[in-house]
Amino acid sequence: ELKVEQNPLFLSMQEGKNYTIYCNYSTTSDRLYWYRQDPGKSLESLFVLLSNGAVKQEGRLMASLDTKARLSTLHITAAVHDLSATYFCAVAPSGNTPLVFGKGTRLSVIA
Amino acid sequence: DVKVTQSSRYLVKRTGEKVFLECVQDMDHENMFWYRQDPGLGLRLIYFSYDVKMKEKGDIPEGYSVSREKKERFSLILESASTNQTSMYLCASLRSGETQYFGPGTRLLVL
After folding, report:
1. CB proximity A25 to B under 8 Å
2. pLDDT per residue over B22-45, tens digit each?
């Protein structure tokens, strides 16, 4: 059974600082997703990572995938308040089965 | 742009009522999903469907049923609503190998 673990689950960081959120998964997969969720809202797709070594960047967020280590990271550069949200990673098991989601990392960026 | 819509953003129902939550997607995706999201419990999969008239149980199907009579529409039915079904309900759709898109969510309160 595929398990997805995110850490940390809660993160309070100062504006301007850098930090990384980690997503570990337990079995082989070839697709990993990152989503953002604002309070009271739905999930918004940020990145889809499809192969080992894949790196994608959007603004202050950069996601990478190491399929051999079964690890994805979401790196935040020079955090700003607008990045405060909950971030989920999700992994696609092999075959046609639903995504498995991590529990989410609640990020709070403070001045 | 993929669009996933849900019939209501907010619903208030009484215990014992039959509740219908509708989800429509406009991108001809074969896969559709219903999740509920509760504080501290993350996203939990209720039911999913890979094709018209086809359904599969997710992790927490008890107390729910679904209907998929047309490819673009996936309905979640609470046969007899109970207070422990108060939650945020999220619909999603997916073309295999691509991004999974979420609807805006329905916040259901059962009194």
Report:
1. no
2. 999 999 999 999 999 998 888 999
CB-based contact A9:A86 (threshold 8 Å): no
Burial class (CB in 10 A: 0-12, 13-18, 19+), A60: middle
pLDDT tens per residue across span A17-62: 999 999 999 988 878 999 999 998 999 999 999 888 889 999 999 9
| B residues 9-68 closer than 8 Å to A (CB) | 31, 33, 42-43, 45, 48, 50, 58
Which residues sit opposite A90 in a β-bridge? A33, A101
Residues of B in contact with A40 (CB under 8 A): 107
CB within 8 Å: A42 and B104 = yes
Distance CA A97, CA B101 (A): 16
